[in-house]
Amino acid sequence: MTPTEPLTPPPENGAAARAEAQRHRILDAAQRCFVASGFHAASVSGIAIEAGISQGLMYRYFENKRAMILALIERQLDADQRSIGQMPASVDLVESLLACYQVWARGESISRHDTAIASVALYAEITAEAQRDPMVAEVLRRHDKLTTEGVCAWLRRHDQACGVPIDEAALRQRTLLFRITVEGLAMRAVRDPDLAPDVVRALLHEAVLRVVGR
Fold first, then answer.
1. Which of 41, 90, 137, 155 could form a disulfide with 130 if both were Cys (CB 3.0 to 4.6 A apart)?
2. Residue 100: which domain range?
3. How many domains does the chain have?
4. pLDDT single digits (tens) 44-95
5. Residue 199 CB-density burial (10 A; 0-12 exposed, 13-18 middle, 19+ buried)
6. What letter would DSSP give residue 10?
7. CA 140 – CA 133 distance, rounded (Å)
8. Which of 197, 177, 171 is closest to 100 using CA atoms?
């Protein structure tokens, strides 16, 4: 090989890719178990069965159930922040949130979402666990601040696209209103799943009008 010849790039690390895929497989199984039974009632053995692997193999990826809970929370909150960052300035918040409400009311999870909580059951579990576990509370608070900044940045882009002067204090208030609206809507979907879509749409229209300013 002469000095001018390009070096052959190393092959993709197949072992690392397989390990990451296995890790996601375990977390997917853990999420299904946690949604069905809750963080504390779900067992490590049950998660292993759901993932289709041995319990011993699972411990190669996660030290214990608490480690799975923390990893799952991080993954879910990271996904929420990415989805907020990808929201177009012109998204129809009313119809988007109404669609989320209808999925939540059926007790389902939103696999691809732009504005809201993916799973009400998982959201409720994470919130409850934060009251019991200081580490979970710390993770949740850290991500909560990042999510708030993401929503605020989206509203700022929206105002700029509409040619509206930026009012930072008002942006913060509108961000808080948006978050309260989404979180309250998720809980309302569980408690009152039979609300007529037109009723939800009309109420969302009023709330969104306050958030986006038009």
1. 137
2. 69-212
3. 2
4. 999 999 999 999 999 999 999 999 999 988 887 777 777 777 777 777 889 9
5. exposed
6. P
7. 11
8. 197
pTM reported for the whole predicted model = 0.79
**Of 43, 15, 14, nearest in space to 29 by CA:** 43
For residue 1, what are its two tokens?
A: 């090989």
**Amino acid code (one letter) for 205:** H
**Tokens standing for residue 74:** 């991080």
List the structure tokens of 103. 């999925």
Distance CA 125, CA 129 (A): 6
Distance in angstroms (rounded) separating the CA atoms of residues 90 and 183: 21
To which residue do tokens 């601040």 refer? 145
Q: Are residues 95 and 42 in the same domain?
A: no
